[in-house]
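User: My advisor, Dr. K., asked me to get a structural model of this assembly before our group meeting. I'm new to this, so sorry if the format is off. These are the inputs:
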Amino acid sequence: MPTRIVILGGGTGGTLTANRLRAALAPASAGITVVDADDAHVYQPGLLFVPFGLTHPEDIVRPRRRQLHDGIDFVEAGIDRVDIDARTVHLENGTVLEYDVLVVATGAVLVPEETEGLTGPGWMDDVFTFYDLTGASALEARLATFDHGRIVVNVVDMPIKCPVAPLEFCFLADWYFHKRGVRDDVQIVYATPLDGAFTKPEASKALAGLLAEKGVELITEFNTGEVDGPGRRLVGYDGREVPFDLAVVVPLHGGAAYVGRSEGLGDELGFVPADERTLQSKVRPEIFVIGDAASVPASKAGSVTHFEGEVLVENIVRFVAGESLDDSYDGHANCFIETGFHKALLIDFNYATEPRPGRFPGPVGLPLLKESRLNHLGKLMFQWFYWHALLPGRDIPGVGTAMPVAGKKTEGVS
Amino acid sequence: MPTATFAGHDVEVNDEGFFVDPGEWTEEMAPEIARAAGIDALSDRHWVVVHFMRAEYAAKGTGPTVRVLGKASGVPVKELYQLFPKGPAKLAAKIAGIPKPRGCI
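Assistant: The format is fine. Below is the predicted structure of the whole assembly, which you can bring to the meeting.
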């Protein structure tokens, strides 16, 4: 009987895993089923650009099933729970899917209701998020009429998807209000729970420098306890208050709701613990995890998911064949950071190495940790790569799974 | 590596004052570490958190974040900030003699 592979989630990780597995395993030896609650695949890096009118919702959404190759079944249904002992997935429509291998690829979800007051009065009025399509679109309309006052961009707590996105929002807001000729009348403030602009020391320094250069005020170690919409202020757990006219909040993230309903599958936040090098879950050997759904010490970012994909697929093939797993995922992440005025910065790092200056992927490549127009073009071009190379599971020339070191300045690495 | 003396024992700590070897920690040391960090006395509620930190570290190899503490320790986040002002996860880890939580990237 063919191996039954069920993939939960038809986003970045689920789609590229399904397509790569279909190419690696003959249909006679393995059946592949992808489950998702809807048929709308959002190009999530595009969300950042929606509030500034630089892209539009219809340009960043495509049908999920159309991204899946022939020979892959797509089931459009919500997931109720997984029974990890019976090896079954219970769908909300009553269907039960049996599996031999399960891939959890349902990403991270926003849980704004976990922060006091965030979804109360003022939500979608003076308090927004750009982390989903509804919020990003509503924010576009609000920004268009905003010509003076104080904008506070706030990250409630980690982990969040794409930890650089809120910084990019600040940089783009600076550019946007300059372009509209009202920059002097708009204050931009970035309030973060971290002790610096970013998690990694050297990148944090570079990014804090950029914030200062662009006149963005940085408030660190701010832990949002309450969002007071009518009073227009954020209140920290330590009692500090941050007043705003417009708040752009990145809400708390958790794993998909069904993970919490599936006994033994996830951790307290609904993420699934996995081996950081093989991506096999720590709960059952036949369960694998990819992307934002995983509890591993890597960023929740599309590039991480992309690089994990190759190792994950290799390991599912090995697992099915009864062979030992490949432990070569090194935590590689690669992010373009849009800095406004048609420029961007690029960072490249892994579990062991901080983002370093230099060039990527080799000595004549894109500049690292430095603003350039080339990086901005790279960021824009990436959307094409996403739909036409990354999701179909094609390798991008010159960009491998393991972090490259050739173009990096390594002086001072500890 | 610097050393610190708690309850009459010399222990190795890192530059930020976190234990290098959690095995060196004993309950008698906790009140002294707390005092050095600005907490005069450990209440029963502090101890709930300290014991939870030890158990989490033993099970997972890293201390929990504030959110996980709030969901799983039985002490709500608001109270955690009252008990361990500024940074509950960091401060409680220090008092519990475990390394600084890895946090998130």
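One thing worth pointing out at the meeting: The mean pLDDT of chain A is 95.

User: Perfect, thanks a lot.
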